[in-house]
Amino acid sequence: MIELSAGKANTKYKIYISKTALTKKVLNQNIDKDKKILIITDSGIPKKYIKELKKQLINKSVYVHSIDSGEKSKSFRTYQQIINKLIDLEFSRSDLIIAFGGGVVGDISGFCASSFLRGIDYIQIPTTLLAQVDSSVGGKTAINVPQGKNLVGAFYNPRVVLISTVYLKTLSEREYKSGLGEVVKYSLIGNKRLKKLLEENAEKVINRDDKILIKIIEESIKTKSKIVTKDEKESGIRAILNFGHTFGHAIEAFNKYKNLSHGAAITLGMIIASKISYYEGHIKNHQLDNIINMIDSLNLDTDYSKYNYSDLIKYVKSDKKISKGKLNLVLINKQLKAFKTAKFDKKNVMRVFS
Ligand SMILES: NC(=O)c1ccc[n+]([C@@H]2O[C@H](COP(=O)([O-])OP(=O)(O)OC[C@H]3O[C@@H](n4cnc5c(N)ncnc54)[C@H](O)[C@@H]3O)[C@@H](O)[C@H]2O)c1
């Protein structure tokens, strides 16, 4: 069992990573037995996991609320349904929500926890690779509104994050690769050890080998928690976590959030950002080749040739990364450290698509 931590002062929390299923011991060490618990999960998560989890909890009152799987559930409607459930079950401020699922479940459960009775405890048990390496750590919670994704939410840290690689075995190839895209991101924004692990173990990563999964999850979280702990409210350094996201989000929006997963779009965005870094003189040619080869060796798609500059730039311009009218890009340098900059030559961005 690996133990990490994130957050500051009284909102500091532990993150446990194990390759076995969550045991009674681990769960009950982290959950007060007198609390009422609402497990929030979704319709796509195998029922056997929910049964197992319920069996391991010794609390007297454990309820399950399942939402439809998919992004559309991160809505006011689902939020209202969960709040109604908490009220019907007479949850008090000392009770607990368990977010048991991917990023959708984590985000909406966290937002319910942050706002119900002005805040009750929640714990994250993430079941997708993306949620394990990204959304369950950092305390960002949200729902979507018709005007855009994640426009309503709060920064609200969980009490604990319990990760088991057991859950990753049933994840679809698409969802697994989506999470892998985020893992690659951490390896390119400063985690050299993770990069080496990915380069030397591509085959094992593709085959979801538990030992290697544990290591890449640990390294990914170390990078994320270091950054989010320094910058809890996203005012500075946290921006480097958006490496690949400027064009990645534009690719997602261009595809109307269909066809390709978030991670697949971000992977293409990282290739674009790496190429801009090269044309801007921040990295060398062999470094760019090395990045593309590594991504390729993990069986992730690197071909963005069907997108052109004019298709994507309008979405880039409407994205949140424009500050005071200036477009900010997250690029990387020769030391493979990411940095945010508004200083770049537009011609070098266009060149990436020529
Ligand atoms: N809060 C943050 O910091 C943060 C960061 C990144 C992404 N996000 C959010 O995360 C969401 C995406 O999360 P996601 O990629 O985990 O997608 P998701 O939550 O939609 O899950 C993907 C699919 O996998 C299924 N699934 C989950 N666990 C499974 C398992 N163990 N076995 C089989 N199927 C399983 C789900 O039912 C769902 O159909 C987005 O809404 C995004 O905005 C939040």
From TrEMBL:
Keyword Cytoplasm: yes
The record's free-text note on cofactor binding: Binds 1 divalent metal cation per subunit. Can use either Co(2+) or Zn(2+).
Domain 3-dehydroquinate synthase N-terminal: 66-177
Reaction(s) catalysed by this chain's protein: 7-phospho-2-dehydro-3-deoxy-D-arabino-heptonate = 3-dehydroquinate + phosphate
Name of the top EC class for this enzyme: lyase
Pathway in which the depicted protein is active: Metabolic intermediate biosynthesis; chorismate biosynthesis; chorismate from D-erythrose 4-phosphate and phosphoenolpyruvate: step 2/7
Domain of life, source organism: Bacteria
Pfam families associated with the record: DHQ_synthase, DHQS_C
Chief location: cytoplasm
Entry's Gene Ontology cellular component terms: cytoplasm
GO biological process: amino acid biosynthetic process; aromatic amino acid family biosynthetic process; chorismate biosynthetic process
Compartments (UniProt record): Cytoplasm
Amino-acid positions noted as binding NAD(+) in the UniProt annotation, renumbered to this chain: 69-74, 103-107, 127-128, 140, 149
EC nos: 4.2.3.4
Residue ranges of domain 3-dehydroquinate synthase C-terminal in the record: 179-321
GO-annotated molecular function: 3-dehydroquinate synthase activity; metal ion binding; nucleotide binding
CC cofactor: NAD(+); Zn(2+); Co(2+)
Binding site for Zn(2+): E182, H245, H262
Family indicated by similarity: Belongs to the sugar phosphate cyclases superfamily. Dehydroquinate synthase family.
PANTHER family with a match to the protein in the record: 3-DEHYDROQUINATE SYNTHASE, 3-DEHYDROQUINATE SYNTHASE, CHLOROPLASTIC
HAMAP family cross-referenced by the UniProt entry: DHQ_synthase
Physiological role: Catalyzes the conversion of 3-deoxy-D-arabino-heptulosonate 7-phosphate (DAHP) to dehydroquinate (DHQ).
This protein's name: 3-dehydroquinate synthase
Protein source organism: SAR86 cluster bacterium SAR86A
Name of the encoding gene: aroB
